[in-house]
Design brief:
Layout: H1 2-10, H2 12-43, H3 50-66, H4 71-92, H5 102-124, E1 137-140, E2 145-148, H6 149-171, H7 173-183, H8 185-190, H9 195-220, H10 228-242, H11 247-268, H12 273-299
Antiparallel strand pairs: 1-2
Length: 300
């Protein structure tokens, strides 16, 4: 571990490579976190199935690519299909836990995550999957910094998705209805907004964003049916840091998490990278708890 840390300190160009690749990776994390922020803010649900939706989107993109669809063209198709999946999941399960205790929604979506895991294992198998985009990489600083084009494209698409989501929420009629429902669902319903339609569209948008994130993940790395939990934890961590409804904050937190996680993975070893993410989540939750306790004691 010390040797790896010294290598980063003594080789700034190599450290730049690790940080830049982490930032590009973080854009995909942010893309998945957009949806969790929406669902949490509007439906008041902590969506534990988030990571499985990401992985399912990746498997859909892989299946489309296996049947001759160009990898980048598979991304919008996967997002569209995942919107339908999100719509279906809401109509069958999720609507039953809206306005219920938060713990009930956690249990319900956790059950969904296990179900989707097993279905993916049955349909797609347990093998690790990846899509070769054939786009190659870009080399800088005499080859010291290497960035895969698919990661650069993922970074641009994630930022574009964040901007599109912000514009949708600000200017589209449904976006304004989503914002109104998030602020006060009962008042929105009294004013004539169909809150049930708002909820199902919100959950569908979340699933579509997860589908896009999963499509990019299967092109940039690999996926398998049981890798969903780390994506759920990352999304949860990003939303906790950024706050609900803060698209710019989600982008910043996602990029920061990607960079920190990539550096930690290099210094500690790849086998401890996910453990670092879980430890970071615990540390931030404890910090937020202590901060809230201090605020309460100050007010009292």
């Amino acid at each position: 571990m010390i040797d790896n840390l010294l290598l980063l300190v003594q080789n700034p160009s190599f450290a730049l490579d690790v940080v830049l690749n982490g930032l590009l990776v973080g854009a995909i994390f942010a893309l998945a976190a957009y949806g969790m922020s929406l669902v949490w803010g509007v439906l008041n649900i902590v969506n534990i199935v988030q990571g499985e939706l990401v992985v399912l989107g990746g498997f859909i993109a892989f299946a489309l690519a296996s049947h001759g669809v160009p990898p980048l063209a598979a991304l919008p198709l996967s997002a569209a299909l995942m919107f339908c999946v999100g719509w279906f999941l809401y109509r069958v399960v999720v609507f039953r836990v809206v306005d219920k205790d938060l713990f009930i929604s956690i249990l319900a979506t956790f059950g969904l995550s296990i179900l989707i895991q097993q279905l993916m294992n049955m349909v797609f198998g347990s093998d690790v999957r990846s899509i070769d985009t054939g786009l190659g990489s870009i080399h800088m600083l005499d080859g010291a910094v290497t960035l895969a084009w698919i990661k650069i494209i993922a970074f641009v698409l994630a930022l574009a998705a964040g901007a599109a989501l912000w514009l949708f929420l600000r200017h589209a009629r449904m976006g304004q209805a989503i914002r109104a429902t998030a602020q006060n669902a009962r008042a929105a319903h009294v004013l004539g907004i169909d809150t049930d339609r708002v909820y199902v569209v919100t959950y569908g948008i979340n699933a579509a964003l997860c589908g896009a994130a999963g499509s990019l993940a299967v092109m940039a790395w690999t996926i398998h049916p049981y890798i969903g939990l780390p994506y759920t934890v990352r999304s949860f961590l990003i939303v906790v840091v950024a706050g609900l409804g803060n698209v710019a904050g989600v982008v910043a937190a996602g990029l920061g998490l990607g960079a920190v996680e990539n550096v930690a993975g290099f210094v500690l070893g790849a086998e401890y990278q996910i453990a670092f993410v879980f430890a970071l989540m615990v540390a931030i939750l404890v910090w937020r708890n202590l901060r809230a306790a201090r605020s309460r004691s100050y007010l009292s």
